[in-house]
Amino acid sequence: MTGINVDAESRPFWDGIAEGELRLQRCRDCARAVFYPRVFCPHCFGGRLDWFTATGAGTVYSYTVAHRAPGEFAGQVPFVVALVDLDEGVRMLTRILGAGPGDVRIDARVRLDVARLGDAEDSPELPCFRVVEAA
Amino acid sequence: MSPRRRAAVVGVAESALGRTPEHTVLTQQATAAGAALAEAGLGRDDVDALFVAGGWSWSPAVVLSEYLGLRPAYLDGTNIGGSSFEAHVGHATAAIEAGLIDVALITYGSTQRSDRSRMAPRPATLTEQFERPFGLPQPVGAYALAATRYLHEYGARPEQLAEVAVSARRWAALNPKAFHREPLTVDDVLASPMICEPLHKLDCCLVTDGGGAIVVAAEDRWADVATRPVVVLGHAETTTHNSITNMPDLTVTGAARSGPAAMGMAGVGHDDLDVLEIYDSFTITVLLTLESLGFCKPGEAGDFVDGGRTAPGGALPMNTNGGGLSYTHPGMYGIFLLIEATRQLRHDYHSGDHGDHGDHDDHDTAPAGGQRQVSGAELALVHGTGGVLSSTSTVVLGRS
Ligand SMILES: [Zn+2]
């Protein structure tokens, strides 16, 4: 089972997911959003980052449909993995729920849907997305 | 300013390739190292620097030093993925220029095909916790994300990706050591099983065992060596991201930086190059790299490789051993790009001519007919890509 090793830096993010919220950081110096969590802003190297809750809305930048997958994911094919540009200006890798081959296009609008991908009890809740408006 | 003390590749060798259950990563690297040194006419005790990449030990350079009985004065375990070996050549060249070392040995070995071992799932740590739980097959899934975006932005077609694999196979047909040599068509590639859209099985590199070694020597030693030295004229490396999520533009690789830097150091332009050895982990890797290196404009690489331009007999021979797609790909392929470029620049493949160096043992490549030799090859560009388009390193080599 691919668990997640939640650490001191990522805990606020995963705590947010458990509450159905997508929490990101914003840099006080350059005002840009930051993901994944860091102690320094990757844009300006500022060291003052504040947590905030994102809207959960985004746009598909790219995607692939996996027809083969290793281990625990083998039984889930075909499934769609996408890179989503959140409206706040950061990019995330994610799973598009309820979608198969031909269902997702670049520029489709998507919305956060926290879900478990595996059946196991320890399967983590993850920030997945669903298409809300086709491209 | 005094002229730079130059460095050259003076010996290259592969170990056994394909499926090699009789080998370990140590025996592969040792046999390749022995063959590369023998070709150069040098001995183990001439080596004063060791460069090793790989993830098979806590410190491959230290483990291999002990195994070979080496006590190097200079150690480099730089591991930036499949492009590590081009970086090693660059680092060795810099150390030679600085007068720190005279003879560097660079090695690689892998038994990934024979191992067939799958690591037990472990929790996703550090930055991988934001990607791995979504189940994207790696590395193919990351390259597929780049390919989808590339096709979308430029209206390129899967047939143009497939053409890269077809050209590689035509070169492989001329290489007795290639894993796959039977003819291949664009339709074959498109009919092969879909792995991660839009990449089919035959858009993906092989999974083989294998190893290789390269000897780089300072120009003071060239008179002693048994081969025609192949001079390192330029080198550069960079990284743009680790995970595919953080690649700034999925259609532009670090080649856009390391390529011009290496070519600038060498003082060569695109039209000067006679042969290209470009890392082909996947067909998309080659198209993105050709564009990022500046051989054509963004979106035009499909047209660039069309009509066999990079195939045998084409205007710009590329991946003349069959590449990672058809020749061999033991996890990290970069060392084989350098081995092939060196042999091309020595004109090793001229019919009826084994080159101007000593006897070949069975680890060396027999001449495969004149077609594989790029006629009059003087300058080669070697470009490695590591991770998921994450790191690149470029080397320009010249016939001495
Ligand atoms: Zn900032």
Description:
The complex is a heterodimer of chains A (about 140) and B (about 400). With about 140 residues, chain A is mostly beta strands. Chain A folds into two domains: about 10-55; about 55-135, OB fold (Dihydrolipoamide Acetyltransferase, E2P). Chain A is about 5% helix and about 40% strand. A five-stranded antiparallel β-sheet of chain A has the order 6-5-4-7-8. A three-stranded antiparallel β-sheet of chain A has the order 2-1-3. Chain A is globular and about 45 Å long. Chain A starts with 10 loop residues before the first helix and ends with a strand. The mean pLDDT of chain A is about 95. Chain B is of the alpha/beta class. Chain B has one domain: Thiolase/Chalcone synthase (Peroxisomal Thiolase, Chain A, domain 1, 3-Layer(aba) Sandwich). Chain B contains twelve helices and eleven strands. In chain B, the strands form two sheets. Chain B has a nine-stranded mixed β-sheet, with helices on both faces. Residues about 355-370 of chain B have low confidence and may be disordered. The interface of A and B includes residues 35, 72, 92 and 94 of A. The structure holds zinc ion (ZN).
